[in-house]
Design a protein that fits this description.
Helices cover 57% and strands 0% of the residues. It starts with 21 loop residues before the first helix and ends in a 9-residue tail after the last helix.
Length: 91
Amino acid sequence: MDGQTSDRTIRIRRDRDGSTDNGFYRRRAGRLRHATLRRALGQAASLVRPLVAVGIMVAAILAMPARGPDSSSQTADVLARDAVAVPKIVR
């Protein structure tokens, strides 16, 4: 403190019987909590789209095969594809 007094006064809201108006302060605190929660969720919601995109990319990378097919299975696939089906004659 720099030695100066403050002229600021605090007005306390009172009921008719002179007690503190707790309902007023309770409602005000609820509005402040609601606004804070809405602001925090709004900021969190802005992170959802990038996180979903990263998740899709990770899933795509994990779904890729680690190695290509064996050369022997490739040869068998080529031979099976090139084979001509000969109709069977039944007498």
